[in-house]
Specification:
By secondary structure, the chain is mainly beta. The protein contains one helix and 14 strands, in the order E-H-E-E-E-E-E-E-E-E-E-E-E-E-E. The chain has one domain: Porin. The radius of gyration is 21 Å and the shape is elongated.
Length: 280
C-alpha cells in the first residue's frame, strides 16, 4: 500500500518541464487534486465525541475510505504538460489514535504514523487535537481544533512499475524510481452537536473550517544526460468547509465502535470506521 495511495498526486514527469516552484490557482487541477487527498487525512472527530474523565485514556484505530479522483482533476494543466497519470491509490487510509482526558470536558488527542516504508512509501505523519465537550441533558456541544503535519516520502510520481525507456516523450523515462515528498499541512476548527439515542449509542453532526497548505515536491532523474533532475515543487494555499456526522455504539463501558461520514463539498465525500478502548 502506498500511504493514502501514496501515489498521492502522480503528476506527469515529461521532457522540457519548467522546474522550480509551481503555484497553481485554486481552481487548477493540481490544487484540486491536493485538496482531494487532504480530506481523508484530516483529523476529524472520528467518533471521539464522548466525555473522558481526567487522567483517563482512550486508544483507537480507524480506517478511512479513499475514493479514486475523477479523470478531470487527475489531468495536470498548469505545472506539467496536459496529460493524465494513474494515481494508483490505496482504497483506505489507516490511523491509530490516543486521547487523554484533562478534566472539565477537555480532551487532548494525537495520532502518529511512523517512518516505516511500505511499498516504496515512508510516512512520517502526525496529528493533534484539543476539544471541549459541554453536555446539557441528552445533548452536547463539542468545540474542537486540530492540525496535521509531517510528510510522506517515496516513489509517488514514478514508481517502479511506471518506469520506461521506450519513449522519451512519455512520463517516467528513466531507470530509477522517483523520490518525491508530500506534506499535507492543515489546521482547522470545528463544532458539533451530540445527542444520545439510548443507553448504548450516541450521534453527532457538525461543520468545520480547515486551512490547507499542501506542498508536493517531485524528485526524478530522466535517463537522458541532457535533462536536469526534476525537483519541481507545487505549492498552494486553500481554505475548505467540511461537514460531518456519525454515530458511536458502546459495546461496553470501555469498548466502542464508530462510523463517520465526512464531506468537503468542493472536493470529496468519504467515511471512516473505527474502534476504541477506554483505559484508566
Amino acid at each position: 500500500m502506498r500511504l493514502l495511495g501514496l501515489a498521492i498526486i502522480a503528476l506527469p514527469v515529461t521532457d522540457l518541464l519548467a522546474q522550480g516552484i509551481c503555484r497553481p490557482d485554486e481552481d487548477d487541477n493540481e490544487a484540486r487534486l491536493l485538496a482531494f487527498f487532504a480530506a481523508p487525512i484530516a483529523f476529524s472527530p472520528g467518533g471521539n465525541v464522548t466525555a473522558l474523565g481526567a487522567g483517563k485514556f482512550r486508544f483507537g484505530f480507524e480506517l478511512t475510505y479513499v475514493p479514486k479522483p475523477s479523470a478531470e482533476i487527475s489531468r495536470s494543466e498548469r505545472c506539467y504538460a496536459n496529460k493524465t497519470e494513474e494515481t494508483q491509490l490505496s482504497p483506505v487510509f489507516p490511523r491509530p489514535r490516543v486521547a487523554l482526558g484533562i478534566g472539565g470536558g477537555v480532551v487532548l488527542e494525537a495520532s502518529y504514523l511512523p517512518p516505516v516504508t511500505v511499498m516504496d512509501a515512508t510516512p512520517n505523519l502526525g496529528s493533534i487535537a484539543v476539544s471541549r465537550l459541554t453536555n446539557v441533558g441528552p445533548t452536547g456541544l463539542l468545540l474542537r481544533a486540530h492540525a496535521t503535519f509531517g510528510e510522506v516520502e517515496g516513489a509517488i510520481t514514478c514508481p517502479a512499475d511506471k518506469l520506461q525507456l521506450s519513449n522519451t516523450t512519455q512520463p517516467c523515462y528513466g531507470s530509477q524510481k522517483s523520490k518525491d515528498t508530500y506534506k499535507p499541512n492543515m489546521l482547522g476548527a470545528e463544532a458539533a452537536l451530540t445527542f444520545t439515542g439510548g443507553a448504548r449509542w450516541l450521534g453527532y453532526a457538525g461543520a468545520g473550517y480547515t486551512a490547507l497548505r499542501p506542498r508536493f515536491q517531485v524528485g526524478f532523474q530522466d535517463a537522458r544526460p541532457n535533462v536536469p533532475f526534476d525537483d519541481t515543487r507545487i505549492e498552494v494555499d486553500l481554505n475548505r468547509i467540511a461537514l460531518f456526522g456519525g454515530a458511536l455504539i458502546q459495546l461496553s463501558s470501555l469498548i466502542g465502535l464508530s462510523a463517520e461520514l465526512y464531506s468537503v463539498p468542493e472536493d470529496i465525500t468519504t467515511f471512516r470506521v473505527g474502534a476504541s478502548v477506554a483505559w484508566r
